[in-house]
Amino acid sequence: MIAEKIANVTNSFDKLCNNCIDVLEGLSKDIGMSYGELNVWLFVIIQPALILIFFTTTVILTIRLYRKNKDFKRGNLITASISTIVIIAFVIAMLLAAAYVFLILAIGGKGIDGTV
Protein backbone atom coordinates (compact mmCIF):
# COMPACT_ATOMS: atom_id res chain seq x y z
CA MET A 1 0.00 0.00 0.00
CA ILE A 2 2.78 2.45 0.87
CA ALA A 3 4.71 1.41 -2.24
CA GLU A 4 1.68 2.27 -4.38
CA LYS A 5 1.45 5.72 -2.80
CA ILE A 6 5.15 6.32 -3.40
CA ALA A 7 4.79 5.16 -7.02
CA ASN A 8 1.89 7.57 -7.55
CA VAL A 9 3.89 10.46 -6.12
CA THR A 10 6.86 9.57 -8.29
CA ASN A 11 4.65 9.34 -11.38
CA SER A 12 3.02 12.70 -10.63
CA PHE A 13 6.41 14.26 -10.07
CA ASP A 14 7.71 12.72 -13.29
CA LYS A 15 4.78 14.19 -15.22
CA LEU A 16 5.42 17.64 -13.73
CA CYS A 17 9.15 17.37 -14.43
CA ASN A 18 8.56 16.26 -18.01
CA ASN A 19 6.12 19.13 -18.58
CA CYS A 20 8.70 21.62 -17.28
CA ILE A 21 11.37 20.11 -19.53
CA ASP A 22 9.03 20.38 -22.53
CA VAL A 23 8.41 24.06 -21.74
CA LEU A 24 12.14 24.76 -21.43
CA GLU A 25 12.92 22.89 -24.66
CA GLY A 26 10.24 24.85 -26.53
CA LEU A 27 11.46 28.12 -25.06
CA SER A 28 15.07 27.29 -25.94
CA LYS A 29 14.08 26.66 -29.57
CA ASP A 30 12.10 29.93 -29.69
CA ILE A 31 14.99 32.07 -28.43
CA GLY A 32 17.74 30.19 -30.27
CA MET A 33 19.61 28.73 -27.31
CA SER A 34 20.32 25.17 -26.38
CA TYR A 35 18.41 23.56 -23.51
CA GLY A 36 21.58 23.47 -21.42
CA GLU A 37 22.37 27.15 -21.99
CA LEU A 38 18.84 28.17 -21.04
CA ASN A 39 19.00 25.98 -17.95
CA VAL A 40 22.27 27.61 -16.85
CA TRP A 41 20.92 31.12 -17.46
CA LEU A 42 17.72 30.45 -15.52
CA PHE A 43 18.94 28.38 -12.59
CA VAL A 44 22.59 29.35 -12.18
CA ILE A 45 22.57 33.04 -13.06
CA ILE A 46 19.08 34.61 -12.95
CA GLN A 47 17.51 32.73 -10.01
CA PRO A 48 20.43 33.24 -7.57
CA ALA A 49 20.67 36.90 -8.63
CA LEU A 50 16.97 37.43 -7.87
CA ILE A 51 17.32 35.65 -4.53
CA LEU A 52 20.23 37.91 -3.57
CA ILE A 53 18.29 41.01 -4.64
CA PHE A 54 15.24 40.00 -2.57
CA PHE A 55 17.42 39.03 0.39
CA THR A 56 19.31 42.35 0.29
CA THR A 57 16.08 44.31 -0.08
CA THR A 58 14.58 42.56 2.94
CA VAL A 59 17.61 43.32 5.08
CA ILE A 60 17.76 46.96 3.96
CA LEU A 61 14.05 47.53 4.57
CA THR A 62 14.27 45.89 7.99
CA ILE A 63 17.18 48.16 8.97
CA ARG A 64 15.31 51.25 7.69
CA LEU A 65 12.21 50.24 9.62
CA TYR A 66 14.23 49.82 12.79
CA ARG A 67 15.97 53.19 12.35
CA LYS A 68 12.73 54.99 11.50
CA ASN A 69 10.99 53.75 14.63
CA LYS A 70 13.67 53.60 17.27
CA ASP A 71 11.08 53.12 19.98
CA PHE A 72 10.44 49.78 18.24
CA LYS A 73 6.74 49.36 18.85
CA ARG A 74 5.22 45.91 19.03
CA GLY A 75 4.12 45.89 15.38
CA ASN A 76 7.61 46.75 14.23
CA LEU A 77 9.03 44.00 16.39
CA ILE A 78 6.69 41.51 14.71
CA THR A 79 7.73 42.78 11.26
CA ALA A 80 11.41 42.53 12.12
CA SER A 81 10.88 39.06 13.56
CA ILE A 82 9.12 37.88 10.41
CA SER A 83 11.93 39.30 8.26
CA THR A 84 14.50 37.53 10.42
CA ILE A 85 12.60 34.24 10.19
CA VAL A 86 12.40 34.60 6.39
CA ILE A 87 16.16 35.21 6.20
CA ILE A 88 16.89 32.20 8.42
CA ALA A 89 14.53 30.01 6.36
CA PHE A 90 16.28 31.15 3.19
CA VAL A 91 19.71 30.26 4.56
CA ILE A 92 18.45 26.85 5.72
CA ALA A 93 16.87 26.19 2.31
CA MET A 94 20.11 27.09 0.53
CA LEU A 95 22.12 24.81 2.84
CA LEU A 96 19.69 21.94 2.29
CA ALA A 97 19.81 22.45 -1.47
CA ALA A 98 23.61 22.45 -1.40
CA ALA A 99 23.63 19.28 0.74
CA TYR A 100 21.20 17.62 -1.68
CA VAL A 101 23.39 18.46 -4.68
CA PHE A 102 26.47 17.25 -2.82
CA LEU A 103 24.78 13.95 -1.99
CA ILE A 104 23.64 13.47 -5.58
CA LEU A 105 27.19 14.08 -6.79
CA ALA A 106 28.63 11.80 -4.08
CA ILE A 107 26.27 8.97 -5.01
CA GLY A 108 27.11 9.48 -8.64
CA GLY A 109 23.58 10.04 -9.87
CA LYS A 110 22.38 6.57 -8.89
CA GLY A 111 18.80 6.06 -7.82
CA ILE A 112 17.63 4.40 -4.61
CA ASP A 113 17.77 0.97 -6.22
CA GLY A 114 21.28 1.59 -7.55
CA THR A 115 20.34 2.19 -11.19
CA VAL A 116 21.52 5.25 -13.05
Low-confidence stretches: none
**Count of individual helical segments:** 3
Name the overall outline. elongated
Order of helices and strands: HHH
How is the main sheet built?
none
- Counting helices, strands and paired strands, the structural category is mainly alpha
Helix content: over 70%
Based on CA atoms alone, the radius of gyration comes out at 21 Å
End-to-end distance? 26 Å
- What is the residue-mean pLDDT, rounded to a whole number? 77
- Strand content range: under 5%
> Oligomeric state of the chains?
single chain
Extended strand count: 0
Description:
With 116 residues, the chain is an all-alpha fold. The protein has three helices and no strands. The chain has helices at 2-31, 35-68, 74-107. α1 packs across α2 and α2 (35-68) packs antiparallel against α3. The radius of gyration is 21 Å and the shape is elongated. The mean pLDDT is 77.
How is this structure best summarized?
Helices cover 84% and strands 0% of the residues.
Task: Using brief descriptors, characterize the structure shown.
116 residues; elongated; mainly alpha
